[in-house]
Amino acid sequence: MNADKIVDRIRTDAVSFNSMEDLDVIMEAIGDAKIVLLGEASHGTSEFYTMRAELSKRLILQKGFDFIAVEGDWPSCNSVNQYIKGASGAAESAELALSDFNRWPTWMWANREVADFVNWLRTANQTFTKEKQIGFYGLDMYSLWESMEHIIAYLEKTGSSQLEHAKKAFECFEPFNRDEQSYGISAGLFGEGCEDEVVQLLFEMNKKRHQHPGSEAALDAEMNTLVALNAEKYYRTMVMGGPESWNVRDQHMVEVLKRTLNFHGQDAKAIVWEHNTHIGDARATDMAGDGMVNVGQLIREDPEYKQVFALGFGTYQGQVLAGRAWGSPVEVMDVPKAINGSWEDCMHQAGQGENQLLLFNKSQLEFQEVIGHRAIGVVYDPNRELGNYVPSRMAQRYDAYIHLDETTALRPLILESVNSELLV
To answer: How far is CA 57 from CA 10, 124, 138, 273, 376, in A?
Structure first.
């Protein structure tokens, strides 16, 4: 890898990114794409969220996109969906709707940046007909128990004959007391799981799948059933190690995206908010060698979804919101300067500390070389930076990239009320 050549090529091809108006370049490049994948290099950086929100607003107003799908659980996101559509019984504010994100890491969606965007969506929806209102949906599948509860509530309300199947499936999980690890050990290591019950529930639910076509309540029940099926498989495979649990998760997210697109009709357009590790094509990283797939790869490979645009984000230095370990208290951490020879370091050198925007094309041979590209998770240790870089061929991983040279931490809603000093 010749870093000097990469820096020179960035200087030639990148454009300065100084204001939101500069996003016009991205909008033009997106063209007629029907699926736009918006990444982030961390789950705790304010600017990644605000840039995605601004792009999403433009995609909705200028290109007629139909919904936002995010790396969040379906039930929690449905609370936001109900709020922005003014549904009966919905939360009275964006903050209350986002309070349903009560599973660690809560800050990933319960933050001021998302709340501001959610309020914009609610206002925008008031100008659209009911059929054209923008949706907000969750692609993830950690909400096993919550999704089962939503299924039973829906079946009780509709008086469905599938209610007993749902209760039987839920009863199978009750002894594990909502402990995913305990369930995973029991099912994965000892074969004492609830797979048969959930598969049967999905079969029964699918028999009535078209009973209420076009109904948001029916879509909610369908997706929660899919969550129950795949979350059970995820927790069962997670304890075994290897790539399978990762693949189960990303395959699930693609399936939810496809079904939600189908719900919105043949010409539906979707905006996806997820980490770079999900939206950037896995085949352009070392993930492929480990047998892992991701959303970006699976969508690009599907012949039905050829019009896809993937935008990656990154930063050279700044601050981020994260935890020291899974479930530990959230804190504002310093993001050190990118390591020498990394993609972020090359962007920094080329732009001399300025924000930049870069479109990729097949003629940029320098960007086909493998280079380290930083990825920060919800668990982060700034003192162990080397392990945070994913070997990547950038021009194959994304269609475009935005480099923000110095970034700041998200503003979590829960900390705004109890720990405001962290936001200074």
So the answer is: 28, 9, 18, 13, 26
Closest Cα to residue 304, out of 270, 334, 278, 338? 270
Report d(CA 377, CA 414) in Å as an integer.
20
The pair phi, psi for residue 232, each rounded to 5°, is -60, -45
CATH 3.40.1660.10 fits 1-66+269-424, yes or no: yes
- Both structure tokens of 72: 């969040």
Q: How far apart are CA 303 and CA 105, in angstroms?
A: 35
Helix (H, G, I), strand (E, B) or coil at 248: helix
* Cα–Cα nearest to 35, from 220, 362, 298, 373: 298
Are the CB atoms for 166 and 220 separated by under 8 Å?
A: no
What confidence tens digit (pLDDT) does each residue in 342-395 have?
Answer: 999 999 999 999 999 999 998 899 999 999 999 999 999 998 888 899 999 999
Q: Would you state the structure tokens that stand for residue 330, as one six-digit string?
A: 């959230």
Domain range annotation of the chain: 1-66+269-424, 141-268
The stretches of 37-179 forming alpha helices (DSSP H) are: 46-63, 74-84, 94-98, 112-125, 144-158, 163-173
pLDDT surpasses 50 at 314: yes
At CB < 8 A and 24+ separation, what contacts does 213-219 make? 214/263, 216/81, 216/85, 216/87, 217/154, 217/157, 217/158, 219/259, 219/260, 219/263
